[in-house]
Amino acid sequence: MNSRFVPSDDRRSNMPVTLQSAMVTASYAPDFERCRLLCETVDRHVTGMAHHYILVEHRDVPLFRQLETPNRTVVDERDLLPNWLHVLDDPLSLFRRRVWLSLRTMPLRGWHVQQLRRIAVAVHAKEDVLVYVDSDVAFLKPFNFSAFQREGKVRLFRRDNAMAGGDQGEHRIWSRNAGAALGIKNPETSPHDYISTLIAWRRDSVLEMCRKIEAVHGRHWIAVLGSARKFSECLLYGRFVDEVLQGQGHFHGAEEFCRVHWTGSAMSEAEFREFVATMSPEQVAIGMQSFIGTDLDRIRRLVEA
Questions:
Q1: Which domains does the chain have, with CATH numbers?
Q2: What is the rounded distance in angstroms from the CA atom of residue 143 to the CA atom of residue 284?
């Protein structure tokens, strides 16, 4: 069991109306310039947050230190993850990729470990509300983090019944594994989807979630998630809040504040401008998945314009 988690107490009844918020971004060296653009647009457009945490692998820390300010800190994953999880160059990829190994988990890739960092930062951070933003996001409009709060409650992003129909790819597997990690036997999967970027979690609820997983399984929460390997931190947290906490301390919202180009090919100049022009009124940022390959200079030119 992880002794770092302090016993839970019930303070929600006396919660202040305004909670302190922080932004959390997990990144890595190939996305450094995208993360730089994110930071520039955050400084230009975002208000109502106390701090910005950038979570990276140990060897990427010196590179990302360039982005630090009095209100922005680079956090080494060694300060977040247990010392029994070891990272090395993967010989199966001819040493082009990284792999995290331990005797307690399956081999983990970078996208797995980024999710673990997002959860583990709850021990490191001090703020009440953690707002998760990917490093390939750029803000285009003013945005205040008060949008994530209502009378001491925190906004939980949820697409109601989004997984009740057709093929949802791996989402059902992730939902099922989330339920298993939390000890939820019925339903096996949730009908709701909680996956997006620019979403908020309560820090105290994240800590409670980790304690719950450890209580159910009798071992470190990372060992539990890493042994299943196929997991989503968003589905895990969403199911915990809705099915374990019964929504306590939260309210639901389905509007997406960030418009994301999740899949497909790189956009042309005209397609990119159309993508931005057709943002819905509540959307204040765009996310261009870095693996798609949309030219960063094109994104920067439009953002700066």
A1: 16-304 (3.90.550.10)
A2: 7
Helix locations, 197-295, DSSP H? 203-217, 221-228, 233-239, 269-277
Kindly state the average pLDDT of the residues 81-85. Answer: 97
**Pairing relation of β-strands 72-76 and 51-56?**
parallel
Strand partners, 89: 98
Quote the pLDDT of residue 292: 62
Whole-angstrom distance, CA of residue 97 vs CA of residue 113: 13
Q: Contact 148/50 with Cβ under 8 angstroms?
A: no
User: Which stretches within the chain are classed as H helix?
Assistant: 32-45, 61-64, 110-124, 171-182, 203-217, 221-228, 233-239, 269-277, 296-304
- Give the dihedral sign, CA 5/223/205/60: positive
> For residues 261 and 288, what is the distance between their CA atoms, to the nearest angstrom?
5
pTM for the predicted model, two decimal places: 0.90
CB 130 within 8 A of CB 203: yes
Angle between helices 221-228 and 171-182 (to 10 degrees): 150
Q: pLDDT tens across 151-160, in order?
A: 999 999 999 9
How many residues are listed for the chain in this entry? Answer: 305
Around Cβ 282, how many Cβ atoms within 10 Å? 14
d(CA 186, CA 77): 34
**Spatial contact of 171 and 103, defined as CB atoms under 8 Å apart:** no
Strand spans (E) along 49-205 = 51-56, 72-76, 86-89, 98-101, 129-132, 137-139, 143-144, 149-150, 153-157, 199-202
Smallest CA-to-CA distance from 287 within 137, 140, 139, 142 is with 137
140-188 residue pLDDT tens: 999 999 999 999 999 999 999 998 776 667 899 999 999 999 999 999 9
